[in-house]
Amino acid sequence: MTDRIIYLDSAASTPMRPEAVEAMMPYLSDVYANPSGSHRFARRARRAIDEARDVVANVAGVRPNEVVFTGCGTESDNTALSGAVSRTGGVAVCSAAEHHAVLHVVESHGGIVVPTDRFARIDLDALARELDALREAGRDVAVVSVMAVNNEVGTVTDVAAAAAVVRHHAPQALIHTDAVQAPSWLDLRTVAPHVDLLALSAHKFGGPKGVGILIERDGPRIDPLIIGGGQERERRSGTHNVAGIVAAATALQLTDAERVGEIARLTTLRNRLVDELVARLDGVVETIPRNDPAVTKVAGSAHVCIGGVESEALLFLLDEAGVCASAASACASGAMEPSHVLAAMGVDREIALGALRLSLGHTTTDADVADGLEAIVVAVTRLRDRASAVS
Ligand code: PLP
Q1: pTM recorded for the entire structure
Q2: Ligand 1 center to residue 102 CA distance, Å?
Q3: Is 331 a catalytic residue?
Q4: Residue ranges of E strands in the chain
Q5: Which of 181, 198, 200, 301 to mutate to test the pocket of ligand 1 (most atoms within 8 A of CB)?
């Protein structure tokens, strides 16, 4: 066991940005008032939330009153989908490659799950057919959810194109995008105009865990999920996490400002990582080929399938070597079933069992990539040697 951490799991969570930690400190110690109160101390806390709301609105290109602070990305997704179904009684629709925070909600409401293409993007022809079939059956569509960036394989979905299909085939439906993995790679101002609901999570962009954002455009058009004291203009009750909200806004602003430079830096690192893995080990396949003009994937994503190796055994050895990586989404790792995303893409089960997700982020260094690469080569070679000794 080594003490050094080689962190290649930024899609699971990112280290907090020091500026975000610093920004939240006064609200953990000095400014502890409940922001819903009426005294001046409460007003100070409330002002901090208002300023954070302005920052988020600016980065997303929406109005401040369209920004709702929640408790996590999962809550934002759940609110969007359950809130739309509850308001209209209509059907929820999503693709088979969505994060479980969307997929399980759609399934729990008896909704429709649409197949994807081989890159994990919703199949737009199948979506149009499903929406037509629902209309012919006399069923209203409450909401269609299309993720902006896939958390496992890093594919970018053209949300505008998907939204156009929905507007045409189910004009009354709300459009939701799970943009939890997007802020480091996409300008949210280019995504938000196409949707009614957009979910974010602060710990994916250098903010704290336990802070989510739901952009509700031209609302409210959905029911709240959490009801009580009526905070967030009745859209999300519960005393605000003032420190977390302030830190989330700080992290989002920095992420937005640094995005272009970071994409260039991390593209180089990611390409080096994948190219070397393919060159030094037999049977390594880049799950979404980055040079395929038919698909766009984000710079931080290095998802590969390694032939003849089981992810679980590989992750164990990598963990011993200090390398943090994952096989499927963080929530699913630890299970022997191959990921539902790879299954939706049509990846053969045997191949999917060798999946390795390496994800880069704002703290990833050249040394992380170089050392991570060495550790992976050593671990895969060891597993293969062991397998050939047994057989
Ligand atoms: N949606 C996507 C695409 C994610 O990657 C995640 C986190 O893994 C979530 C939703 C859930 O976000 P949170 O961890 O804030 O609940």
Answers
A1: 0.96
A2: 9
A3: yes
A4: 6-7, 67-70, 91-95, 112-114, 141-145, 174-178, 197-201, 212-216, 284-286, 301-306, 323-324, 355-359
A5: 181
Q: Rounded distance, CA 75 to CA 257, Å?
A: 26
Whether ligand 1 lies within 6 angstroms of the CB of 212 is answered as yes
Best of 201, 298, 326 to mutate for ligand 1, by most ligand atoms within 8 A of CB?
201
- Structurally, what CATH architecture does the domain formed by 6-15+259-390 represent? Alpha-Beta Complex (3.90)
Using the mean position of ligand 1's atoms as its centre, give its distance from the Cα of residue 370 in Å: 28
Specify the pLDDT at position 330: 46
Which DSSP letter does residue 307 get?
A: T
* Domains 6-15+259-390 and 18-254 in one fold: no
- In the chain, where the domains are located: 6-15+259-390, 18-254
SS3 46: helix
Q: What is the pLDDT of residue 336?
A: 64
Identity at 178, one-letter amino acid code = D
Which residue's CA is the nearest one to ligand 1's atom 13?
73
Give me the amino acid identity at 305: C
Q: Which residues make beta-bridge pairs with 214?
A: 68, 199
Q: Where are the alpha helices (DSSP H) in 61-180?
A: 73-88, 100-108, 124-136, 159-169
Instruction: Please return the burial class of 235, using the count of CB atoms within 10 Å of its CB with bins 0-12, 13-18 and 19+.
Output: buried
Minimal-distance CA residue to ligand 1 atom 8: 12
Please name the residue whose Cα sits nearest to atom 15 of ligand 1: 73
Q: For the chain (length 391 residues), average pLDDT per consecutive 10? A: 89 98 97 96 98 98 98 98 97 98 98 98 98 98 98 98 98 98 98 98 98 96 97 98 98 98 98 98 96 96 96 96 84 66 95 96 98 98 89 69
Domain 18-254 has CATH 3.40.640.10: yes
Q: Is the CB of 151 under 6 A from ligand 1?
A: yes
